[in-house]
Each structure stands twice: as C-alpha cells, then as structure tokens.
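User: I'm designing a mutation panel for Primosomal protein N and want to avoid disrupting the core. Could you give me a predicted structure to guide residue selection? Please restate the sequence first so the numbering is unambiguous.

Assistant: Good idea. Sequence first, for numbering, then the predicted structure tokens:
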Amino acid sequence: MDLIDAMGGAPAVAEVLTPVALDQTYTYAIPPGMTLRPGSIVTVPLGPRKVIGAVWSIGGDSAVSHNRLRPIDRVHDVAPLADALRDLVDRVARYTLTPRGMVLRMVLRVPEALEPEPPVPGVRRAGEAPQRLTDARRRVLALLEDGLAWTRSGLAASAGVSAGVVDGLIAAGTLELVDLPSGRLPHAPDPDFNPRELTRDQARAAAELRRTLEGGFSVTLLDGVTGAGKTDVYMERSPRRYGAGARRWCWCRRSR
C-alpha cells in the first residue's frame, strides 16, 4: 500500500524495523506529504541518535497518542525492500531464533550505498587552443573535437599523454571541468553464463537437490571436504529457482 499524503485521510503512522538487537518494530508518525510504502528505507530517531530502518507496515492503532510519536526523519531515494526480502528477514529470524533487527542489519550493512553516487569529474573543450601547441596537446584536442566530455584520466590515456598535459590545457582555459553522471548500474547476473561442468558425483548430488526443491519445505545437507564442489552443486540449481520466482531457500554451510 502506498501512502501519498499523511494528512489526506491515509494512515498517519508507520511501523519501522530498526537494525538493533530487538524483535519488535517501533511506531513513528508520518510527516505530512511524505510518501511511504512497506519496505521504504527511512532514517528515524532512536533515542539520542538517528538510525536507518525499513518500514514494515503502514497504519494500525498506536498505543501512544499521535502527538507524542516521533516523526520519520527522512525517506531515502532508493527502491524499497521487496515483500519477498522482508518475508525472508522474518523467516530467518524465526528459524534461527535471532531478533529481526539483527537480521535486518545484514540487509542494511552498508548505509553509504543508500546515498546518491557522487558525480565523476570530467573535462571538455571550452576555449581556443593555446599558442604553444605541442604534439601531445594536439592529440588531446583531436579527441575533443566532437564536443563530448571525458574523464581526465581517460582522456590522457586515450591520447597517450600524461595527466599533466590535460592539466596544462585546463590552466590555459582551453578545457573546463564538468561533472559527469556516475556509472550505470550493471546488468542483472545471468545464472546460465559460463556454466560449470559437474563431475559424476556432483551431478548426482545436483539431481537429488533438484528433486527436493520440487517438493515442499526441506533441509538438505551437502557434505564434502574442502574443494569437493559443494558450491558448484548448490549454484547449479538455486539461481534458476530464484529467477523463476520460486520461494525456496537452501542453506549451505562449509565445514571447517
């Protein structure tokens, strides 16, 4: 359920799970105009500090009056946690008898990833060529004839010159510094790319694993010495199951 405006008749509270050693969620007031949905990543006050958490649900009755609830501080501009991922957090917490907040902590392990990527510094042609035009400078300017911007290091490498040549053109006013957009996100991994050829024993184990995954809930132990190929057997099937949207989990623990 999406929340468009907290003052427009929609629920005004949200249950937020924080990455601390507790199983419960905390109730927070939703500021007017804030857009939320289950799974939204938010920053909330927790005691004297602010922490990152995830909205677990929206609405419901609060045991604390609304005027005493602390408001959500910020909604991060990232994709919300999918229903399946939040369900996995709950399931792992129940199965391992671990507080849900500690399982969520593994999901939100790198808070810096929630911030927008900084722009990449670049250069482009901005003025006339300098009076002293060396061969190195000519090669740099030839690459900039199309008007496109380059990174400083990429331009120097493509022209076969040192970074000092590019810096000299910047100082002369021939080039100007610009901000380039950060790199695009990589494509989704392809589980069928460069498949491993399994040995006879690995193929037998993979076939048995496929058979158990076709049924209901089960626990499968892959037993083998280090280097026996347990990961190859597990990965031979699991990515395909996840890609098909199947709700299966297989835990593979290496012996030490």
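For picking mutation sites, this is relevant: Residues 83-96 form the longest helix (14 residues). Residues 1-10 have pLDDT under 50 and may be disordered.
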